[in-house]
Structures are given as structure tokens and as C-alpha cells.
Amino acid sequence: MIALALLVGSLPFKVLIWRPSLRQSEAGFSLPVDEPAEWDLLVRLALTGVLFSIGLGMLAQAGQIAGSELVLPWAPEMGLLLTGTRLGVIWLTRLLLTCISLWLAVSRSSAWKSWGLFGLGLALLLTESLTSHAASESRPFLPVLVDWVHLVVMCLWVGGLAYFVTGLRQTRQVGGEQRTALTSLLIVHFSTLALTCVGLLGISGVYSAILRIGSLPPFSIHLMVRRCC
Questions:
Q1: Count of alpha carbons within 13 angstroms of residue 30, beta-carbon side
Q2: Phi and psi for 43 in degrees, rounded to 5?
Q3: Torsion sign across C-alpha atoms 130, 132, 138, 143
Q4: What is the pLDDT of residues 165-209, one digit of tens each?
Q5: Is the pLDDT of residue 223 over 50?
Q6: CA angle 9, 15, 20 (to 5 degrees)
Q7: Of 54, 39, 51, which Cα lies nearest the Cα of 100?
Q8: How many other C-beta atoms can be found within 10 angstroms of the C-beta atom of residue 32?
Q9: What are the angstrom distances between the C-alpha of 195 and each of 68, 153, 216?
Q10: CB neighbour list of residue 192: distance below 8 Å, 6 or more residues apart
């Protein structure tokens, strides 16, 4: 999820926070501030992390079938998982999406590259929701949709933090009053995004809690069990 947050949080931070802050600052100053080189590295590290987690996850899922922690990639249980179960189809779809994302990340820059990576990241988050508790509901459409929104806003907030920190470091290219103005704008824009995301996290979380738990007595029992554990 951390890797997916870094992947999905990249473009929204650039479009909603970084570029508007630069435009507003440049209204009064000349700011030669480029996008940090670390941002491309973060995206590639994120995709590497997603690919690693997918491989490890498939080995662990097949291991549950075999009654062990992990299995070898060529074990019969791996073939059974990937070809004979709905979960296996989702894992293969997730793997395909990640491979396409990796190819896109290392390809030459283009106007649609960032949007393509963002769309693939959203699709990867959807595969997570399709294997969540929400997908086991009798009418899964709305629960899966809410779970997906929950994951998306989490990625915008948590992933955006990494780009926010590296973006603040990049403002050292300018100094004095210019840097203060740009930093203030970045903080205001990111705070607005963060508050929006936290609000949506709360709403979607409450919905999921009501759906899973249903009433206050089970919720109280759930809290007691967690405290005991």
C-alpha cells in the first residue's frame, strides 16, 4: 500500500499543489524552480515495491493452499491458484498492470505518460478492493466502490506527503521572500488536499464500519477483544 500510495500520489500532487503554487508565486516573482529529480525515482521505486509485493503475495496465497508459509513459483499449488480461482485471475491482472506501468515508467517522456501511470495506479487499487471484505458482500458494487475511494484518498494523502517533503527541499533553489511565498502556498494547497482526504477517509471508514459491524454491541465487543489482544 505504501508503494501504491507513492505511485498514485504523484500526479495529483503535481496538478493540484505543485504547479498551482508555482503559478501563483510567479505572479510576483521569477522562480526558476524545476520539478525534483527524486520524483521520477519515487515512481520507479514504487513500481518495484508493487512488483515485489505481488510476487511475494502470490507465493504466500499458494502457500495457504499447500499448508505452508510460502511455496516455490513452480509448485502445483501456484498453478491451481492462478488458473483455478477468481483470486488468481485478480493476481494475474495486478501483475499485468504493474508490468505495463513499469514499461511506461522507463519509456520516453510524453504528455500522457503521467496520466497513464495514474490510471494504472487507480486500476491497481481497484484490484485491492476486489479482494477486500467489501467484495464478499451480497451486493458488492457500492461496498467495493467505497473501499476503492477509501484507498484512493489514502494514497493522495500519504503518497502526497513524500512529494510534499521533496518539493519543499527543491524550493532551496530560490531564497528569501520568494522561498517564503512558495513554501506558504505549498503548505496551504497541501493542507486543503489533506483535510479533504481525511474527511473522505472518515466518511468511507464509518460506512465500512457500519457495514461490517452493524450495531454498537458488536462494536463494543470488537474493541474489548482488541484491548485484550
A1: 0
A2: -65, -45
A3: negative
A4: 998 888 877 777 778 888 899 999 999 999 999 999 999 888 888
A5: no
A6: 130
A7: 51
A8: 8
A9: 43, 10, 27
A10: none
CA 104 to mean position of chain CA atoms: 18
Q: Are 138 and 200 in contact (CB under 8 A)?
A: no
| Cell (9 digits) for 56 | 511475494
How much is the CA Rg of the chain, to the nearest whole Å?
A: 21
pTM assigned to the model: 0.84
C-alpha cell at 96: 499485468
Write down the residue that cell numbers 477483544 correspond to.
225
Dihedral angle sign, alpha carbons of residues 48, 50, 53, 55:
negative
**Contact indicator for 11, 58 with CB cutoff of 8 Å:** no
CA distance 123 to 100: 12
pLDDT (tens digit per residue) in 118-157: 999 999 999 999 988 888 877 888 989 999 999 999 999 9
Rounded to the nearest 10 degrees, the angle between the axes of helix 141-170 and helix 113-129 is 140
Residue 199, burial from CB neighbour count under 10 angstroms (0-12, 13-18, 19+): exposed
Cell (9 digits) for 55: 510476487
